[in-house]
Each structure stands twice: as C-alpha cells, then as structure tokens.
Amino acid sequence: MKILICIKQVPDMESKFKINGEGNWYDRTDLAWRMNEYDEYAVEQAVRLKEQVGDADLTVLCIGPDQVKETMKKALAMGCDRGVQIGDNDAHKREPIEIAAMIAGFAKDKNFDIIFTGMQSQDRGSAQVGVMVAEMLAIPAVTTIVGFSFDNGAVKVKRELEGGSKALVSTTTPVLLTCQLGLNTPRYPTLPNIMKAKKKELLTLAPDTGGVCASQETAAFYFPERKGSGIVLEGDVSDLADKLIQLLKEKTGVLA
Amino acid sequence: MNFELTEEQNLIRDMVRSFAEAEVAPSARSRDEEEVFDRALMYDRLGELGLTGIVFPEEYGGAGADYISYAIAVEELSRVCGSTGVTLSAHLSLCANPIYMFGTEAQKQKFLVPLAKGEKLGAFGLTEPSAGSDAGGTKTTATKDGNDWILNGSKIFITNAGEAEIYVVLARSDKSAEKHRGISAYIVEKGTPGFSFGKKEAKMGIRSSPTMELVFENCRIPGDNLLGQEGQGFKVAMKTLDGGRIGIAAQALGIAQGALDAAIAYTKEREQFNKAIATFQGVQFQLADMATQVEAARLLIYNAAYRASAGLSYSQESAMAKLFASETAMRVTTQSVQLHGGYGYTREFPVERMMRDAKITEIYEGTSEIQRVVIGAALTK
What we know:
heterodimer; A: alpha/beta; Rossmann fold; 9-stranded mixed β-sheet; two-stranded antiparallel sheet; globular; B: alpha+beta; Butyryl-Coa Dehydrogenase, subunit A, domain 1; Butyryl-CoA Dehydrogenase, subunit A, domain 2; Butyryl-CoA Dehydrogenase, subunit A, domain 3; 3 domains; 4-stranded antiparallel β-sheet
C-alpha cells in the first residue's frame, strides 16, 4: 500500500506577526515554525494505518525552502518512511492551484492508494489544495474527516458538517482525504525515532507547476482595525436588564 | 564554530516541551503539595518517549543522542517541574551512566539495558551522615565473603530511593587502604535481603521527588555486582558526578527559564499606575539581567555537554556550568517572586515552588563551594 501525506510548515500561531515590506503577507523573519496542525492529524492517521496493515510505504511531501526539512524530520520521526521536499523559496507567495499542481505533478505516476493532508493551512487557510490535487489526479476527495477506518480495501470516513452534524462516507481507493481537528491525537515523536529520522531518505526536487500559472494576487495583508471600547452598563440589576433589552432592540437584530 | 542547535536537537526540545506542558505541568503543583511521586507520569512516560536512555547507544537500549540533547530534555522537564527533571537526571547520570562507563558487558546487558529502556529506575548512593562533600569519608563497609560482598551501613538523601530498582552504591572495601583508595562501587538491586529504606525526607523543594535513606544490614550481593575494579570506587564516583553536574545544571537552567517566562508573562499583564508594570524601565532592567544570566548558564551547560559528547575533558566545565546555573536559578527565581509581588508569595502562582526547588541545585551533587574547589584546583594545579 502506498500512501502520500502532504504537509506544510507554518509559523507558530503564538508568534507575534508583522506585515512584510510589500504589505501583502506576513514577515517571515524571526518566527518559530512548526507543522500545520491539520497536517499533523494527516501524518498520525497515515502512521496508524501503516501500523494496522503492516505493509505500507509512507511518503511525506512538503513544499518550501530548506527550513521545511526540520518539519519534515518530525513527520519522519512520527513514522513516515521517506520524504520529498519540493524546494521552492517562493512557496509562500504561490496560490493554491500552483501548490496543487506541484503535488499532482509529483503524485501522478506514483499510484498512491491514499493521500492524506490537512483540511487547510493555519496561515493561508484556503482549504483548496487538497481538493484541487484530487481533481487534477481525477480521484475522489473526502474533506474534513474526523473519523477513519480501513478494512479490506474499503475506506470509511466520518465527515464533520456545518452545525455539528456528521456524515459517514464509504469510498474505494485511490482517494484523497483532508483531515480535521478531532480525527486523532498526534503522537509525540520518540527520541529514538527522532534519531532514526536522520537516516531516512529525504529527496529534494525542483519546483514544477506543469504550466499552471497564478491568476490571483494578494493585494494587501493587514490586521483588523481595533474596535472602539464596549458599552459598560451600570446601576440596579432591574434597570440593567431593561437597558440591555433596549440596546439589543436598537442596535442588534437579536430582539425584534 | 556553530552555536545553532541541530534539527534533531530542535525536534527533541519541541517534543519534550509539548509533553512537559501538556502532561507534566498540570499536576506539578498538586504533586508538590502532596509530596507525591507519580511514577507513571514522571518516569514510565519518559521511558515511552525514549528519554530514559538518551545518551546511550542503541545496542544498550538507548537513543544514541548526545549530551546536549540530554541537557535539553532535563531543562524542558524542569521548566515546568523540577522534581521530574531531577528524577531523570539522577537516574541517567548517576546510575545508568556509571554502569555504562565502568560496567562489564554482562552488567550492561543485565542492568543498563532495562535502565535505558525505562523498564527500571536507577539511583545512586554516595552521601552518608558523615560523608557528604568529603566522599572519601565513606563509612559503609563492603566485606568479601567467598565470591560475595556483604554491605553494612547507611546512605542518606538518596534521590529516587524506594522507587528505584537499581542502585549504584559506594562502600569501603579496604579499611587498611588510604582514604580514597579503599572505596569500591557496587550495583545493588531493590529486594536484596538486608537492603531496606529508612525515613523519607520532608524537604523544602523538589517535594514530588522521593528522597530516602538506604540501609544495609548484612546485605549480601554477588561478586559480579562489583562495578569497576576493587578500590576504584572513588574514581567511579568522581567521574559519575562530572556527568551528573550537567544534569543538575540543566535542571537549574530549566527552573530559571520557567521563572523568567513566568515573570515576563506576569509583568506584561499586571497593571499598576494604569500601566503594565513591564513598561517600567526598572522592571525591564530586572528582566534583562535575568534573561542574560539564563542565557549565559545555557551556553556554559551546552559547552560542557558538547565536550562530554566529543570525548574531551569536561570536569572543570561541568563544575562551572553547575555552579553558575544553580546560583542563577536561585537569583532568577527569587527575583521572579519579587516581580510577582504578593501573588508570587502565594502558592496560586508557580514561582514560589520554583524558588524552593532552585535552592537544592546549589547543594546536591556537589555544593557551590565544592564546585569552586574543583574549578580552583584545576586552575592552580
């Protein structure tokens, strides 16, 4: 069984973000980097599947500059077998279709049975790359999965839908799955496995979008303006309730 | 020369920090207050993560990592819980490491492998009521009887005692020999007849780490449990403590870093005179001094750890690292309590625990005074 896991390196979301010089993205200097949270669920699920079936080969793919190798090492330490970095210093500027084209270009003749990836990245958050890859490879995609089982070639997943409802979906392979919070709890890479990851294959390929060109451009990147301070009501509890009802009627649609 | 950590060292820090914050930190306060050693959390989990044998080769159940990785692991555990940090340090540096350095192949297979894998916990018995800094004053005796040795005497202030399955113990095997030459090292297993535990110490800090007395009453151990050569015990002890100092220095560094992090977070939140107190230059100067000392301690420790892994001499460097890191821990935790004001003196905030935990790092595994003796002797020899 051949499995591909697509991961992205993103800034630690606790970082203090600054806007870059061009004003169209965040400044990448002085940030701490980690694996996109949703991709960690993807790696964990792939490793669990390998533990279940025994005979599986896990390739982890990441696009970006050399610094992404550290995040890839974490995926290798968690249990992936080999890594493929598409070395691209401009990856952060690329739009989802270019990223998807690079992944699909790599995967198209490799016959992966299952492709796992996060449902979106924590920084750009387009949630487009996974489904575009599936489309380009002409395989089904099931998004936002929070449950997964594999039995005798049949994949069964639980999807999270709006409003807390869920759906159970059965599919055959090959399939691409995008992983959502709640799917699993990613393991800590153990220390011996961190050391062994050093010896695993990590191939670097040149970026190739196969002729797909960008058609979107991020015009501006900015922080929302600070809103004015709220209204503080003071007085007796009974008066306060009346004032609150009045305000809700006047300023919101909560009360008619 | 390169001061950057390797990818592996960064991954190890990330892993241990995530584990420490998610699993160790939540119970640090209650374990301290109740003086509870939670073995499943503070040792078994470390074994599952491969931390109990970090520096030993894979063939002995270790991870084959370096001493900087070890220092990072102890630092990150101690950043949230000094007791968990010392559990690992005492186990690895003081028990597993002398068996790795001085043990026969059979001893390594029998004792080091389960220690490194985290299946058994280790401890070290050197200190006695009348032999602390003066290790040559050891009064516990080892008498040869056929192929066996018979131990009599007691050891005090032993970290991990009672919980540990394997003990490296120093005893006087030759009463007629010169003070330092008549001592040998032995491996003693918990459950050996004649080996029991005395009182559990009620301590100021590291209260979730068990500290007990070891009592030997005609305790018969096989000749195969002699560690190193007969009469070589003082050397075993000194080499063991060289490595141990890196562990305790890292523990002190972690405690200091935890107290610094707490001080920065608190002073940015706490408002007085309508401003966060971190905006006052007087507060910033204090934070700057604390951070500078913590960073200096870290570099001293990494240097000693680098030398240990590279096979260079590191006795003086580890003494300097331990001396500076432990005194830094005491200063930084005390200052952090001060910056927290009245809240810092309450047990609602973790800094009072950190201040209590810091004090022992200036005392055990060689007091600050003994570190100065080691450094001074090396400078003037």
